[in-house]
Amino acid sequence: MKTLKPMKPIKSVPSSKSKQQEQHKKSAPSVITAITDYLQRDDTLPLPQLRRLGLIYSSYRFILSLFSMLMVYITARSSDGSSLPSFLQQTALSFYVLLSLILLGLFYVVTKHLRRQLAFGLVVDVIILSLLLYTAGAPDLQLTMLYMVVVAASFMLLHSSQALIITLLAIIFVIYQQFFYAIANSMSLANLGDALLMSASFLAVGGLSWSISQRLVQLEKVAASHAKEVERLNVINQEVITQMVNGVIVIDSKHVVLANLAAHQLLSIPNPSPLVITEAVDTSQMLKNTPSETAKKASHYNDNQPVSHFQQQLRAQHLQLLEACLSVEAGQSRTFIYELPAVANASVVGKLRVEIIPLKDDSKLIILEDLRREQANAQQLKLASLGQLTASIAHEIRNPLAAISQASQLLIEDIEESQTADNDTSTNDKMAGNHELYKMIFTQTKRVNRIIEDVLKLSRQQIANQQMIVLADWMPTFLDNYFQGHDVFLRSHTQPTISFDTHQLEQILINLINNGLRHSSYANPHAIVEIEIYCADNDVIIDVLDDGTGVSDVDLTHLFNPFFTTDKAGTGLGLYLSQAFCEANHARLLYIPEHKKTCFRLIAPAIQHDVDESTDESTDESI
Fold this sequence. Notes:
The strands form 2 sheets. Strands 6, 7, 8, 9, 10, 11, 12 and 13 form an 8-stranded mixed β-sheet that branches. The chain has a 5-stranded antiparallel β-sheet with strand order 2-1-5-4-3. It is an alpha+beta fold and about 625 residues long. A hairpin with a 6-residue loop joins strand 11 and strand 12. It has helices at about 15-40, 45-80, 85-110, 115-135, 140-155, 160-185, 190-245, 260-265, 275-280, 285-290, 290-305, 310-315, 320-325, 370-420, 425-460, 470-480, 500-525, 575-585; strands at about 245-250, 255-260, 335-340, 350-360, 365-370, 465-470, 490, 495-500, 530-535, 540-545, 590, 600-610, 620. The longest helix has about 50 residues, at about 190-245. Helix 4 runs antiparallel to helix 5 (about 140-155) and helix 5 packs parallel to helix 7 (about 190-245).
């Protein structure tokens, strides 16, 4: 027998109508959600502009209410009492004038919750206009225009959702009061179509106002971002100009327009206020500021940093430079070397390269470049060339020199042994003469070897390994290591920090102090050297003083030349090496003939220093 299989339940196939209904159910909330999301994404005006426009609209409301009140009474008087305003109209207008004045004063005084104040005022506008429309009976063109102003203002000043609520409120009031008026007049619905047309116009005006407000907000944002970017670039440009190593001066006709901090330092013109340094350090905060705050700081900077002080000092101290810059004709460029005036406390900068570049507005851009970097590069090239030369010939020179020195020592020992063994006086006299000659040969070989060592020492120097040196801590240790037992006195008026190669600074001070002790011993029975440390402008000054006879005027021009010496035992390379080391570290070594003592001055740029001018305390230390 065949068994019957149970039949599977037939699934019900949904009809096309049920599918469409489900799609409509799903699409309706999605459309509403999309509309609400779109309205919530609207952009609003920033608070400063919102406050400004809100004040304008509040003033407009007060003027409108006052004008409406006056027009009602003027019309009533001109008609000889035939068309007096109703009690509702008088009450509404009086309340509107009083409330408009209160809202204007409140919006002007209270700066918080601006949109809430505007929303409340716009709702009051809709209610008052609806009451006036009800008293008028039929739709009025003037009241319709006032409604449109309220709707447009709501979309410009408020969020789109709030503006939409106010618009719907106006539509409901207009349609309701017209419908109520039609019922009260025996179901005459002639004016109801006009009310519906007015409501549709409200929606159209609201949509157009909303789109226009969004475009205006976007334009305001773009303009604000561009202004902020311009101010940011302005701050960056000011920071770049301030931190430039080269001095920058802008001269317009005969007046100085701009001078950066490097120009003050290179020309040794004191900066009247530390605002430039403060603003330079706080640039990261300035970049975060709004354009208005940045503009306020810029105006404060311009008010407190007049370039007239710089121009006066430039004319007083560097008149030759100013005249040379002004003598260049408009549109012409020029480059020349300017040597700073020689003064007792000469700056670390000796010569400047001045480049004059014409600008479009007939002004001149003057760039001051410190030649120390070129001198340091030239010094490095000289050291490299000298190193190649000495490396090639040092071995060839020192080998025969060592043989000569050793032979002279052997001959000296041989003569000394012969003199002790031989008693013949004539022979001893001859050997004594030879002994002096051999000692002379040995002494000169030692001198030549010392010259080769100094030259090799100079040639082996690589690029200066500059380190931060606190002189108040480093100098006593240095004197204790190298000059213990000598009368070397240290006087420090400040505690500066310099950037210098420690080994090269040791070599410089050893040469200067040894020269001071040697020449002081020639002039006095007791040799004394003084070291004085102080700050001048942006430089650290180290003076090495002794009581020697000094340097004659004839020898001043050759003082720092290689192999020039006034001491028979000297090699003539000490001052030359010291000056080379200073140039490699962007410093200067000068001889100061104006000082009452023999003074060699080392000038290095100050990294940081703390000068106490009120107490002028100094530390004296004898090594």
